[in-house]
Amino acid sequence: MSALDKPRRSLKRQSGQRLRVDPLVCDGIGQCAMAASSIIHLDRWGYPVIPAGELSPADKGRATRAVNACPRQALWLEATD
Ligand code: SF4
Known about the structure:
Alpha-Beta Plaits
């Protein structure tokens, strides 16, 4: 492996997506955390704490489950570019 391979390998570990939440739309019931408990935690008031920054490909799949589970459409994925 050359030194030039390292950046390419690290790029493959990223999905190019991040998870966003609209706190004004979120109802704080927590279905997203039940759907993706490994990446979304609830704060003391029941509102989701989502991962900061770009998601790994595996976490993107988990985040997609959370987006699909949200009854208020308060979560979405967006490109990091
Ligand atoms: S499922 Fe949606 S509305 Fe419910 S806590 Fe999560 S982001 Fe908020």
